[in-house]
Amino acid sequence: MADNTILIKNALILNPTVNYQGKKDLLIKNDLISEISEDISGENVDKIIDASDKILLPGFINTHTHLSMTLFRGLADDLSLDEWLNDNIWPMEANLNGDYCYSGALLGAVELIKSGTTTFSDMYFYMEDVAKAVEESGIRAVLSYGMIDFGDEEKRKAEIEENMTLFKNCHDTADGRIKVFFGPHSPYTASEELLKEVRKLADETGMKIHIHVSETQKEINDVSAEKGLRPFEYLDSIGFLGPDVICAHCVWLNDDEIEIIKKNDVKISHNPCSNMKLASGIAPISKLLENDICVSIGTDGASSNNNLDLIEELKTASLLQKVSTLDPKVLTSDEAIAMGTINGAKALGLEDEIGSIEVGKKADIILIDTNNANMIPDSSKISSNIIYSANGSNVDTTICNGQILMENKKLTTLDEQEIYKKARKAIEELKALL
Amino acid sequence: MADNTILIKNALILNPTVNYQGKKDLLIKNDLISEISEDISGENVDKIIDASDKILLPGFINTHTHLSMTLFRGLADDLSLDEWLNDNIWPMEANLNGDYCYSGALLGAVELIKSGTTTFSDMYFYMEDVAKAVEESGIRAVLSYGMIDFGDEEKRKAEIEENMTLFKNCHDTADGRIKVFFGPHSPYTASEELLKEVRKLADETGMKIHIHVSETQKEINDVSAEKGLRPFEYLDSIGFLGPDVICAHCVWLNDDEIEIIKKNDVKISHNPCSNMKLASGIAPISKLLENDICVSIGTDGASSNNNLDLIEELKTASLLQKVSTLDPKVLTSDEAIAMGTINGAKALGLEDEIGSIEVGKKADIILIDTNNANMIPDSSKISSNIIYSANGSNVDTTICNGQILMENKKLTTLDEQEIYKKARKAIEELKALL
Known about the structure:
The structure is a homodimer. Chain A is an alpha/beta fold. Chain A contains 15 helices and 17 strands.
């Protein structure tokens, strides 16, 4: 079969690694970036995109979300985490099935593609249905099954079995766009036995681990009461931590725990909008960055955010660090761009494939239109306009694995209106089941 | 002349005052809302808008900005307030002229209209040029000239003269869309004599007052050192405060000052993105709301934000209060909607004309398209989807004073591309003058 080629002309490239001076042409051959230079010939190229008024950057990487929960957007707000979870989210989740999760994941995929995210890391249930949505949408994903055993041995075995089945059936499928991780839910919902078993299986299989840690003060208190240790101390003490563990939230950390994270090269997924909206607290991100810890970004589920816009999330992250430290120089726009791209790739162990614009890497690329009021003037620092002025709606082209998923704001792989209709129907049915 | 009529059919109305149940038709006659009911006939109506998939709400009111500074978007970021102002903004401002301010104001007006703001309150220089931009764009504005005397008597007289001339030339012009306020810059840049003279002239003329107060800790320290009183104590002691004073920022307030604000019925403009970005601090908004103080919202200039998206500003306001109080129930989405609409109208003394959807009020109306991924599902609380999920790009129609300024995302009064071109040229010229 002949190569499939796309040539992007005259793009200003914003990249977290190599700094390309001036405008460049970029050639995509099949799933890869094959050339970046001054003037690439358009002869024999299948498609040419004019990016003269556009900024080209790596597709954003959302390292912590629950995509099917997009169905629960706006279902319950302005509530405590307990009321939100116990009285609203869990009763709805009790009636979920694979079809509903598929509908929610497709709705979320539309939002991700439209706002420039090409890779997401998910933890939820009915993950094979989420994989189906990933396969169809053309997006890239790391999927983990959210394992909860509350100390029950039968449940533990079944949960691990479920995550392993997901691995067997889905890992490296969809042209390699899907990877599967373990998803032990958290140190307070997964037993010590479960966590130790996951560690052992991770070492055997090479599967990485996605977990929630230290989200709320209550969690710190509960884990401390039960284990006599704070969450990261406890996880360290049972040998659970390592460079293959990505921890979401990490709001309440003391200096010893930051040292534990650093020592184990644990990866962080920062979720500022969710932490603010649920009043969980402010994660000490600038301190983590000072310690050269790998901090990536995630939106958490749309039900506690309430959107999946990674640019908005990065602006919020930056502004929140500045005001909470009273230092306007922390978490600069360049650092935020890195957090949303290459750090996400490192967190997921995919830094050889994605997270930056480099020859040989996967063609996960977005174009942002600069010809809009909120992006002008555009003669100063590009990263500033992206992080502080833009939002996801400024993205006009999204390419993943060399495939165009959106061009000029029109989706190519998914039928938006059909997905909206199904998502509306799904949430109505779920509400009726309560 | 015959009446000009616009009929909006089948709209779901989100309103901070009267609660309309179900979908309604709304009739605009000239500049006013003339009827809201179940089924209004389209016969003899000049234009009909189908709002079946849309949410109708009052145009947003931005009570503190510097519109011409939109030219300085992205000029300097990740700096301390001093470096930002002294080394970057002030040197650029030294070369401003009326043409540049006009270009910047038009650029800002495009952004405001596109993101659903119909009224802004401005404080800057070359305000007659800003008035020209307001006149042409069809937006509504309260304009004040930023008076700074640093205790110099000649300068003081000239500054007051300038603000009074603006009043004489522009107040109640543009079909009543422009009002003029006094704009003493702040308690640390305007002398006690200037503030007292403004108070006297405000009482004589009925002009209201727009001022920056208590933005940074440095200001508190400086005013305390000079006056022996904190800023609000000082302003109260010289009889400056009253219900006609709108104070921007108000970050650093102790309980006595909150009491002073309440006693004087002073109006507040909260500017969370700017306060976060410049690391000024977190204003105690939930405490002000508990005290029934009128809190409205402003973006500040685009140079410290870096956009003019009021929906983003309201989300940030809500999330910041939740996390800083560790209480997820404060600043709900309904309160945020009020902050962005009716409270803004009250702050500007325009609550009889704008800020809510009611028969007899000015037709300042926006429509938000619900048929977009980030707005689905849309069956729960409307205000939640607007505040927590949407951003300005979801606005598809903007009407001010009965005139359509944008329909289906297309501007009707302004030439976007021409304005972008001029704004880009202006900033290049200003940079070359440094």
